[in-house]
Amino acid sequence: xxxxxxxxxxxxGTSLDGLDVALTQIRGRGLGLTARCxxxxxxxxxxxxxxxxxRLAAGEALAPRQILxxxxxxxxxxxxxxxxxMRDHLDVRLDAVVAHGQTICHAPDDGLSWQLFDPWPLxxxxxVAVAYDxxxxxLVAGGQGAxxxxxxxxxxxxAAGDAVVNLGGIVNVTRLATTPQAVRGADxxxxxLLLDGLCAAxxxxxxxxxxxxxxxxxxDALLMxxxxxxxxxxxxxxxxxxxxxxxxxxxxxxxELSRDHRPPEVLAAAARVVAQVATGHPTLLxxxxxxxxxxxxxxxxxxxxxxxxxxxxxASVRRVDEAGVPxxxxxxxxxxxxxxxxxxxxPATLPGVTxxxxxxxxxxxxxxxxxx
Length: 372
What we know:
Layout: E1 4-12, E2 19-27, E3 34-43, H1 47-57, H2 64-87, E4 96-99, E5 102-107, E6 112-116, H3 120-126, E7 129-132, H4 136-140, H5 150-157, E8 163-167, E9 170-175, E10 184-190, H6 192-203, H7 212-215, H8 221-232, H9 242-245, H10 247-258, H11 263-279, E11 289-293, H12 300-313, E12 316-319, H13 330-343, H14 351-354, E13 364-366
Helix pairs in contact: 1-2, 2-3, 5-13, 6-10, 6-11, 8-11, 11-12
C-alpha cells in the first residue's frame, strides 16, 4: 500500500471571513502519520453567500430553497478555489478532499450540530472522494463534537510546543502531550466574533484590518472591566460559538460602550480581554510554549496582548508558521489530517476533549463515479 497521499483540507470558520484550502501531503497511516502543508489558498466568500450564511447562523428563518442554494453555492466556491489551487500543482495526484462546511448551529446539549455543505460540486470538479460532516459521529456518541482539531494538532505540533492557541471566531486551545490520550482541548472564549462584531457595529467595517484601530486605542480600567464582564457572563464550560457571541450581542455591547468610549478604545479593550480570558483558562496552565494560529494572528493588537500575557506567565509565544504550517492554513491542514485518519479507520476525536468514549470513524463521504 502506498504510504503517501495528497489531501485537500477546506475550512470556513464561524467568523465567516472566508475559505481556506490547504493541499497537504500525508505520509504513513493512522496515528503514525505525518503531514506537510504543500500549498495554501485563501478566498473571501461572496457577499451574497456570506449574507445568507450569516442570516441562517443568526437564527433567521429562510425558505428551504434558499438554504439549498446556499449549500450548493458554498460547494461551488469550494470547487472553484480547490480547482484553482490544483491547477498550480498538476504534478500532484489528489486522493481526497475534506471539508468542514459552515457551522450554522452547534447544539451539543441536544447532540446536534449543523455544518451546511453540498459536496457534489467538489466531487464533480476534482473527481475525487469528498469527506464532510465530521462532527456527527462524536455527537451521536454523546460527545460535544468540538473542539475537533486537537488530535490533528497532536500529529502536527507535538514536537514544537505545549499548546496551540487558535484565534478564530472562537479561541480554542489544544494542550499537547506525549500521547494522544493525554491531549486536552477546549473552547475558551471569543476572538474574532467579538472583535469583528464590535468593529462592524462601531466602524461599519467587517473587521479591524491588522488591528490598526485597536492599536490606536488606550482603554482605561473601567472599560476593561465592562468588556470582561460582558464576555465572562456568556462563557460556559461547553463549546462556544455564535450562540453565545453572535452579531446581535456584539452590536448591543458596542452600543452600550460607545456612549462613553471611542471605537479605538473599545477595540483595544476587546483585544486585551480576548487574551485575558484565553490565557486564564486551565487548559493553558503551566504551558510554556504557545503556538498561535488562525486569522487572528493578523491582528497586531491581539497578538501583542497575547505576547504580554505570555511574558507574564514566563511562556514563549510564536506562530505555527515557525513549526511548518501557515497560521491561516492550520485548520484546513488539520482537516486534511482528520480526513486521513478517517480513511485509516481511526476516530478523529479524543474522549479527554469531547467526552465521547466510542465515537467511531468520523465523516460522511461522497464519491465520484467509478471509471468503467
